[in-house]
Amino acid sequence: MTQRNRSGARFLSLSAAVLFLLTLAPTFGHAQGQYPTNITYSAPITITQGGTYTGNFRSTDSNTPCIRIQTTQPVTIKNCVLVGAGDLIDAKNGGSTLVITNNKGYGIQQSADNRRHGRFVEVNTGRSVRIENNYFEHTTGIAVYQWSGDGSANGTLTVRYNSAKNIDGRYRNGGGQYVQFCGLNQVRNVGNIDISWNQVVNEPNNSLVEDNINFYNSGGTQQSPARVHNNYVQGAYPYPANSSTFTGTGITTDGDGSSAATTTAFLNAYENQFVSTCNSAMNLAAGHDIKYYNNRMVTSGLLPDGSRLNATYCGTSIFNAYQQPSSVFYNNSVSNNTIGYIKWGYNSPMSNRHDLSNGACSNCTGTTHMPNPITLQSEQAERTFWQQKLQQNNIVVGADATNSTIASPTPAPAPAPAPAPAPAPAPAPTNAVFVRGINVNGGATTIDGQAWQASSASGISMNGHGATAPSLALNPSTEAARTEMLRTFRYSNAFDIKIGSLSSATYSVYLYVVENMNAKTYSVQMEGKTVQSNYNSGPVGTWRKLGPFTVAMTDGTLNITTTGGHANLAGIEIWRQGTSTATTTAPAPTSMPAPTSIPAPAPTTVTAATFFRAINLNGATVSIDNNAWEASTAPNYTTNGTPFANQGISLNPVATTAQADMIRSSVYSRNLNFTMSNVPNGSYEVYAYIWEDNDAQTVSISVNGQAALNNYDTGSAGAWKKVGPYVVAVTNGTIQLLGSGGDINLSGVEVWRQNAATAFLPVTPARAAQAFAPMATELNPLTGGGSALALLTPTFA
């Protein structure tokens, strides 16, 4: 849900005074933006000095923006027609003082696979940015990352009077990324932000957007809240549009900031219209002092041909998606909105409706519920109402228009909601003793004062696939340890679980189940008998502690199976009842110690290792941990990664100066290949330094052809980790590291040679890696976003 900040190809720099015109014939296979073909286009330009720029520019290369700004001097871009396979205006390394007005932008087919359409404009560390009266289609919208202005009237962000069509994150070869019409990331404590009077229309099956408007760890100030008002947003659909899973919205406040100063804050959204937005119209998922009021949310649940949408959920909600304490998530309200939101099969407040999210709208007050039926004609009436509203206020959106500033009402203050009380520990079964708790896809933990074992504990066998949903908003909410357990689970439509080393007795067994997508129906069997029939898992975030199920054990092994739909199993809790199976008068047994986890034996015993070499992949020679690292110019290695650096990001966890410089200067690629050559045959331990410069990616790494790191979430901006060691036997003189999945940032590779001669070893940690603080994770839009909690369950090797 955030934009990446990566360097790309180099561009020809042209001064403002000399522009070389190049007439290009339209040669694109199936251009998605219907751009003008009767005008002459210039080649892409790079702006290196301030001034006003106008003209028509086209780029057929996804790596080459139409306009790249590389100056901090004030720049105005106006009256342009921009046609591009990649970004139209790239202001990531300049453009801090920028006016973009009266331009038309068209995204065309990308020049490479697995590439989304380009931004209309992307700005990093802006100081004063005004984007007004533009038209753009088949782009990935406006992205603003961090801020350097003072929040004054001349040092803020303004996005007004624009018309956007089909925000489109699709790849040309299938798949894609979720993107936004306007996304803010770490634009914090900025006064006078104004996003208003914009029109956004996304067509089903011709677009792919997530949150049309997203504030991620961003917002205004207490004295000057950010204002999002009088916008018309129509359409937020999965692709294809009739899919049942989607994580998008009309607007979402989002972000994993762990303090009141770093999370989304001080935002008023009012007088907006959100029409036909799957999943939700207005989500309030993170932050404090956020007010949604006097908005209209209308979704018929139908496609234009009358067929049903399958991914609608609710009109609005207030939910603590990141499970932050009341010092971070507080003083939020949703009031006086008009809502008619269809969710098939629901009844809130009437048939096939889900206007206010059940269990997540305690501070949603004064709602006007539109009467049924909500139809396609209801949606069309919203469009008519918007057009009348524009006319009454003398506003024309899009290019070729000029508007005056419209006064905006001041939001009424709302009282801070009382913080929810901390949940009490679940009561223990009467006349029973705790035997063991099993964290089905996680590590050892303590829940309700009882020591739970990791999934790798001895005596346990289970099938299914591991999955995580790190930002799943649980309903009901619960304390941290149980939350973490519930967010790491295994899933299967036919579980077969065996838990051994149980003495002959009668046991009470509980199962912790959770839903991260759509409701499923399944049954549970224990020892061959059905103990739970046709359980419905409920909407996203629902969890239950099913049981207790009474099971008489005689063979020492508890067998648990499931049938029906996919079940997400997070935990198993076993208690021994106070009476044995042989008699009802025997005294209650004393507490049995929980079995201890037996570590898996190594392939060999490694007694020591010697530093071999380490390479700083985008930097100079350096000393780290008293070991001499080689520069990126060192011989005997190759990489296909693109170099980039961002030394302005704070690392988490904190690193030494030498480490930090090395980590923040790296190479990246979606299909990374690093190969070290002239390596003497033998056994080695390989470490890789990876980090995230902005939005989380899900990546995997293999070393010498064997899986090493599977579906790893890179975390939020600044997160880094030294992963490994991965033990490999070199027989051909090379060590090869391959990355796959999302963009992976590889900063350095460190190799140690084992002193003991060994046979071939599989790629698996042979000794404990250095301990680092866990990284905060950021929602990945491809596997489930923080704005919406429907996650795809990834398969882990």
What would you note in describing this structure?
This is Right handed beta helix domain-containing protein. Residues 1-31 form the signal peptide. The protein is mainly beta. Among the domains are: 1-167; 432-577, Jelly Rolls; 609-754, Jelly Rolls (Sandwich). Helix content is 4%, strand content 39%. It is built from 3 helices and 59 strands. The strands form 8 sheets. Strands 2-5-8-11-14-17-20-23-26-29-32 form an 11-stranded parallel β-sheet, with no helix packed on it. Strands 3-6-9-12-15-18-21-24-27-30-33 form an 11-stranded parallel β-sheet, with helices on one face. A 10-stranded parallel β-sheet has the order 1-4-7-10-13-16-19-22-25-28, with no helix packed on it. A hairpin with a 2-residue loop joins strand 48 and strand 49. It is globular. The protein starts with 44 loop residues before the first strand and ends in a 43-residue tail after the last strand. The model is unreliable at 1-31, 404-425, 579-602 and 756-797 (pLDDT under 50).
List the helices and strands and how they pair.
Layout: E1 45-47, E2 51-53, E3 56-59, E4 67-69, E5 75-78, E6 81-84, E7 89-91, E8 97-101, E9 104-107, E10 121-126, E11 128-132, E12 135-137, E13 142-147, E14 157-160, E15 163-165, E16 182-185, E17 194-196, E18 199-201, E19 211-216, E20 226-229, E21 232-236, E22 249-254, E23 265-270, E24 273-277, E25 280-284, E26 288-293, E27 296-299, E28 314-318, E29 333-335, E30 338-348, E31 351-354, E32 364-365, E33 368-369, H1 376-392, E34 432-439, E35 445-447, E36 450-453, E37 460-462, E38 465-468, H2 480-486, E39 488-492, E40 496-499, E41 505-514, E42 521-526, E43 529-536, E44 543-553, E45 558-564, E46 567-577, E47 609-616, E48 622-624, E49 627-629, E50 637-639, E51 642-645, H3 657-663, E52 665-669, E53 673-676, E54 682-691, E55 698-703, E56 706-713, E57 720-730, E58 735-741, E59 744-754
Parallel strand pairs: 1-4, 2-5, 3-6, 4-7, 5-8, 6-9, 7-10, 8-11, 9-12, 10-13, 11-14, 12-15, 13-16, 14-17, 15-18, 16-19, 17-20, 18-21, 19-22, 20-23, 21-24, 22-25, 23-26, 24-27, 25-28, 26-29, 27-30, 29-32, 30-33, 34-36
Antiparallel strand pairs: 34-46, 35-36, 37-40, 38-39, 39-46, 40-45, 41-44, 41-46, 42-43, 42-45, 47-59, 48-49, 50-53, 51-52, 52-59, 53-58, 54-57, 54-59, 55-56, 55-58
Signal peptide: 1-31
Organism: Hymenobacter sublimis
Region (Disordered): 404-425, 580-599
